Amino acid sequence: MLFNSPVFLFCFLPLTALLCFVIRARLGREASLGFLVLASLFFYGWWNPVYLPLLIGLAVFNFLMAQAILVERTKPRGGWATPLTAFGVTVDLASLGYFKYTDFLIGTSNAVLDTSIPLQHIILPLAISFFTFQKIAYLVDARRGDVEPHSFLEYCFFVMFFPQLIAGPIVHHKEIFSQTKLKRGFAFDRMNMMIGLTIFFIGLFKKVVLADNVALVATPVFNHAANGGDVSFFQAWEGMLAYTFQLYFDFSGYSDMAIGAARIFGIKLPLNFHSPYQALNISDFWRRWHMTLSRFLRDYLYISLGGNRRGKIRRYLNLFITMALGGLWHGPAWTFMLWGAAHGLMLILNHGWNALPVPRINKWWSRFFARTLTFLCVALAWVLFRAADLDTAMAIYRGLVAVPDLGNMSRVMEDIGWLTFWMGIVWFLPNTQQWLAMVRPAFNYKWADRRKDPLLLPVDHTRFQRLALWRPSKPVAIAVGLAAAASFLSLQRISEFLYFQF
Who wins on pLDDT, 492 or 460? Predict the structure, then answer.
């Protein structure tokens, strides 16, 4: 069930919210919690009920493993806690590996070793990459003793809550268990409803009005390259930049819709995006892009490999391995691994540059140059991320350095104007959490964070500040209503979110 589908917008979400609030008022918090778990299972099963046993089975397995680990770790020398954790993580990774990477490994073996093993054509269960990472973090933290007491029902809610189930954010257990016990949890709250709908409709607008329309430029270029066609200079740049904006608004829109839908029920999810194209370097980019994935890779992979505790060479190697595996997590293809490896190399270069004893320049023009260079490097890497195979990626890259045809100056000016428009949106407009900072829109963003996070346009101390901050008012209601109306009018074509394939 897609967030941008009529059945979700006009049936599932309003009906689920209504029933949740009625059950909460009549039967209490536990009953509404159980109802939301059942509703989430229905939401997941709408796509393909065949994989419901997998979702439920892995949830039960990981809960029982965590309970056993919590008991064992209190025994002398930790008892069997470490072997149990290793076993649980292995089962999670094995399930992910079987469904997602079996054909990739078989195809690689056939190509490299000249074998002829038939492909299995296994259908990838929806969201397996996301809920596997959640469960691994849960088991590891159980071994560390960092999991607070919770019931099985609370755990099921943590791993199955429908707003974040399909494509994140990759929620940490501490962010959910601390909210499921609140006295007013899951009760109707007018402010939560207003905030949630505002964030949700912003995300819907990003997806169906912005991302889906930019896709009309990007998709034909990459399809043409995939079919073996020559890509001209302007085609290549238009396709690459269009996909760069499409991916941002698509996944940012999904994350906003997830945060907004959860807030309707009084649950605050963590941020996943924070204006990543404003980053001044590649490290800053990964602090802003897919923030919950970056957090998981840092806390459970990079640090487990040794982090920066074993010297510079080992630190750089750990960075490279982490990003390469993070790329492979996105999909079973060499293009994804190369995309991750490219970001690993960029991170190594960034850390190496920062270690040089050279004077730093902090002027408006130096920040503009750094921001532009970072954006360009990210956009170039997105070609690998989007391309169907390496041949497609190379066709786009050849087009990027081809001799341009400057005879059509109107097209040149049109492309420059188009790029200026989109860069103005991602650089200078306040993002969702900045606009709603006064009402703490996400688990990890509040007014204090907003004060330390100035906009690129210096409006914080001018008469335009009111436009940069959300507040319950008629103008805001009209603006959000217009965005929702524009989104509904664009629902004639329903497209999947790009991260659904992962």
Answer: 492
- In this structure, the dihedral spanned by the alpha carbons of residues 294, 299, 304 and 307, taken in order and rounded to 10 degrees, is 70
Residue 1 lies in a domain: no
Shared domain for 184 and 155, answered yes or no, is: yes
Q: What number of other Cβ atoms are within 10 A of residue 495's Cβ?
A: 14
Helix/strand/coil for 442: strand
* 272 and 308 share one domain: yes
Distances in Å between the alpha carbon of 282 and those of 38, 201, 304, 311, 454? 41, 30, 22, 21, 20
pLDDT band at 418 (very low <50, low <70, confident <90, very high): confident
For the stretch 288-312, pLDDT in tens is 999 999 999 999 999 888 888 888 8
Residues 145 and 263 in one domain: no
Check: CB of residue 167 under 8 Å from CB of residue 130.
yes
| Main-chain phi, psi angles of 445, to 5 degrees | -150, 125
pLDDT of residue 120: 81
**Which of 140, 172, 191 is the last residue in one of the domains?**
191
pLDDT tens, residue by residue, 205-237 = 999 999 999 999 999 999 999 999 888 888 999
Q: Are residues 153 and 248 in the same domain?
A: no
Instruction: Report residue 160 as tokens.
Output: 């199955």
Does residue 330 have an active-site annotation? yes
> Whole-number mean pLDDT of the chain?
89
Please give the pLDDT value at position 502: 63
Q: Which of 152, 168, 191 is the last residue of a domain?
A: 191
Are 88 and 141 a contacting pair, CB within 8 Å?
Answer: no
Question: Sign of torsion, CA 302 306 312 317?
Answer: negative
Report which of 336, 332, 339, 386 is spatially closest to residue 106, judged by C-alpha positions.
Answer: 332
Helix-, strand-, coil-residue percentages of the chain, each rounded to 5: 70, 0, 30
d(CA 194, CA 196): 6
Reduce the secondary structure of 300-344 to three states and give it as a string. HHHCCCCCCCCCHHHHHHHHHHHHHHHHHHHCCCHHHHHHHHHHH
Residues 208 and 181 in one domain: no
The verdict on 95 and 201 lying in the same domain is no
Question: What residues have CB less than 8 Å from 478, skipping those under 6 apart?
Answer: none
pLDDT in tens, 434-478: 889 889 999 988 888 888 887 887 765 666 666 668 888 888 889
User: Which residue in this structure is represented by tokens 């436009």?
Assistant: 467
The pLDDT assigned to 459 comes to 66
What residue type is assigned to position 91 of the chain?
V
Count of structural domains within the chain: 2
- The catalytic position among 150, 173, 290, 330 is 330
Range of the domain at 163: 6-191
User: Measured between alpha carbons, how far is 434 from 431 in angstroms, rounded to an integer?
Assistant: 5
On whether both 321 and 384 belong to a single domain, the answer is yes
DSSP class of 445 = B
For the entire predicted model, the pTM comes to 0.92
